[in-house]
Amino acid sequence: MGGSMSDFDIISWTDGGCRGNPGPGGWGMMLVNTTSRDCLERCGGENPTTNNRMEISAAIMVLRTLKKPGLAVQIRSDSQLLIKGATEWIAGWKRRGWRRAEGELINADLWQELDRLMAVHRTAWQWVKGHAGDPGNERADQLTNLAMDALQGGRDPAWSNRTTWTGKL
Known about the structure:
Strands 7-4-1-2-3-8 form a 6-stranded mixed beta sheet. It has a two-stranded antiparallel sheet with strand order 5-6. The protein is 36% helix and 32% strand. The chain has helices at 51-65, 80-95, 108-118, 135-152; strands at residues 10-18, 23-33, 38-49, 72-77, 99-100, 103-104, 122-127, 159-164. The mean pLDDT is 95.
């Protein structure tokens, strides 16, 4: 699940949130090339949506952004649902035709897309404690809020920026 920085081509942080559940929601993500330290920040959102949809959407956006197949990417998230879903539960859902043992799988469309994209890249996952000072997690949270602010202000929540990552990987 973890690994050292040198094991990965890309380190990413993701976050998702919602104001009301459902309500206006946003996702934020950052990708950092571990060699060049080039950083892409991106956010977006939709209304109405849910917290969990936005958390999963952020991870999907990370993997969709990678143009070269087979890259080793670590996705860092503060969402236990996302991490456990992607690493522990997805195989069982897939075996059962994208259903939980108890019945319907909520957000099956997103889990299927995440599964498809994980097969294209070498994806590892790391849980990070939210709001605990991790600079990447804090920035992903800021991007998520930027998207929700835009939605609530009647503006397009899509935004991106390229910069150089100077923080710890």
